[in-house]
């Protein structure tokens, strides 16, 4: 993919987007094709764009970094977080109007009104570092207040570690949003493509069956094993959508499995048979919550308070850019270069393809 500006990207996709808007009764085949490298997964937003914001006003300082989620919650400035998430949406969609930005980022599924659209939000509940309420609530209110999604159609889950949600009772959600926790577990077998060689793995039934229209990925910013890049963020967040066990056979199997599950229709969305192109994106937004973050993990609490958030629509690029630019260059937490490089190359890209030389676009 050649380097493209935001405006030329929109120009190239305007015709297709207009056609979809004019003819919403389009037919999307139920295909299970393998990912086609460099497929555009979002018609309105540059897939390779990652925006971020650093603002010390998002949290209050304390004498020591609070390890417990409840203590962190007391230090979060909800208004500042909400305003900055709107700014990031505007930066991602290249507009000054937050409402326009969110309507560009979130795409209504064909044949359904917003009121019937089902949204799943994958959060991270392992051990002690969890999504802060202000981030989760803002995203939910965008869905209900701007788009018209019914609160009861929003499901917050972590099918692997969802029992921890009892310790993180998100505040400020629209009334009726469902905190599902395990959400019936990782109970249904589904095909997983190469580079993993296992053939099939277990996944959340609601994603395999197609019940979920839109998937949102809200991850933490913390360390992990070298086989996963020395970090865990949006891609590895789905070791709670898919069963994580197959990733622990070996270092190579772990990385192959991480990449492969993020190339499935369960996460990316429906694909065209034979060509493997994404027809309707399921995972439409990825957020990295680094109000607090850590070099180590996943079992350790946060070690730093960066007051940082990042956002994009394409998970591998979000992880690559945040790992190299924020974790590596800014925080000094060097990622495993071979692993992070594969997060691009296995999806058909290199760093030279990324806008602004692969840097985070600060808003």
How would you portray this structure in words?
This protein is an alpha/beta fold and 363 residues long. It has one domain (36-362). 29% of the residues lie in helices and 15% in strands. The protein contains ten helices and twelve strands. The strands form three sheets. Strands 4-3-2-7-10-11-1-12 form an eight-stranded mixed sheet, sandwiched between helices. Strands 5-6 form a two-stranded antiparallel sheet. Strands 8-9 form a two-stranded antiparallel sheet. β2 (119-122), α5 and β3 form a beta-alpha-beta unit. The model is unreliable at 1-31 (pLDDT under 50).
How is this fold's topology laid out?
Elements: H1 6-22, E1 51-54, H2 69-73, H3 78-93, H4 98-105, E2 119-122, H5 133-147, E3 154-157, E4 178-181, E5 186-191, E6 200-204, H6 205-208, E7 214-220, H7 251-261, H8 265-268, E8 269-271, E9 278-281, E10 283-290, E11 308-312, H9 315-330, H10 337-345, E12 361-362
Parallel strand pairs: 1-12, 2-3, 2-7, 3-4, 7-10
Antiparallel strand pairs: 1-11, 5-6, 8-9, 10-11
Helix pairs in contact: 3-4, 3-5, 9-10
In total, the number of domains comes to 1
The parts where pLDDT drops under 50 for at least 5 residues are: 1-31
Give the topology string: H per helix, E per strand: HEHHHEHEEEEHEHHEEEEHHE
Give the CA-based shape: globular
The total of beta strands comes to 12
Class derived from helix and strand content: alpha/beta
Through-space gap between termini? 25 Å
How would you write the strand order of the largest sheet? 4-3-2-7-10-11-1-12
Number of helices: 10
- Beta-strand portion reads 15-25%
Rg: 19 Å
Q: Could you report the average pLDDT, rounded to the nearest whole number? A: 89
Helix content: 25-40%
Biggest beta-sheet profile:
8 strands, mixed
